[in-house]
Every structure is written in structure tokens, then in C-alpha cells.
């Protein structure tokens, strides 16, 4: 009799444990993420492109906080608080699909070169948007040095600002101006003219290349005039 009572107690305890197990399965989370030494914000300027562009794409890394699924899932991103960029004029945030079985994806932020960007820097706060397949995942530093983020800030413009290194190379390229720098980018395909980037060869050879290109430009168009009304020279 005692043995049967003991078995009944064990059965009841097992039943209670089964009832306490939660069967709820909510949506997995998703976040942006950056590596250990990767910044959590970025700046983009159309002015540094060797070829004029009306649009360009910046890719942000995203990962699932949860398990892989055997079906495609939809990811949505929205412009968060603090954004000054205008949807459809300065950026597009497409809805994308995470392939079945995948845990990471590159999200394409489409930047649009609006006319106002020559004088104004616009800010886009790209933020994870909850949806039917994903909620906003847990954020913070992870094992391995990566950091999960709910949002990433992108500052976008079509402006050129005098680089901090210019004094080091002024003897090679002359006084800085935005128009001169744009010409340098167009001719060379480079956007970084620091001593570390161009080396000794570039320091001596690039000015020659630029003078030749400027002579060709002037033969067709006349002097190249910068934003201050000065003639561009090298």
C-alpha cells in the first residue's frame, strides 16, 4: 500500500512539472552588430566618389537573437528618433528577407544624393523595427567582442571638409579648397591623400598627374575656379 502511495506521489509530481513547462514561443529578436573595434556610427559623403552618383548603398550587419528557422523571415528597419534625413529624398529603408537557415544578413541602407546635401548634413538613425517575424533583440556586448545594437547612426552629405592631414601635404598639392579636392578625387580615383595613404611615390607623382589633368581641363573649359573665386593650381 505504501509502495502504491509512493508511486502516486511521484506521478503527481511529474505531472505538476510538465504543467509548469511553458509552451509559449514568441518571435526571435534581431539586432545590428559591430565588431570589437568597429564604430557604431558612420559618415558618408557623395563628394568622395570619383564618379558622380545619385544613390549609393551602405550595408549594415544584422544577426538573429534566437534560433535559425527553416523558412524565410522578413526584416524591417525604420528611421528612429533624431533622424533629420527625409524618406524618399535622402534615403530608402527596404524591407528585406532573411533566407531560411540564416542567422546573419547585410541590410542595405540606400542613400540618395539630394540637392540639399551640398550644404547640409542629414542624419539617419537606422533602427530595428519589430514585425511579425522579429522583435528588437537584446543589445549589449557579446562574447568575442562584438556588440549588438538596436540602432546605428548614419550622417550623409555631399560636402567636403578640409582633412586634418592637409597641412602635411600642402607643399605637394597647394592650398586646400573643396573644388580642388573634388577635382583630385575625380582625376585619381582616391579620396585619402594623407602621407600614409599615398606614400612617397604619391607625394611626388600625384601632383604631376594633377597638373597634366588640369592643363587638359583648362584647354577646354578655361581656368578651374574654386568656391572662393580663386584659380585652382597644383
Automatic annotation (TrEMBL):
Pfam family for this entry, one: DUF4843
Top-level taxon of the source organism: Bacteria
Protein name: DUF4843 domain-containing protein
Source organism of the structure: Chitinophaga ginsengisegetis
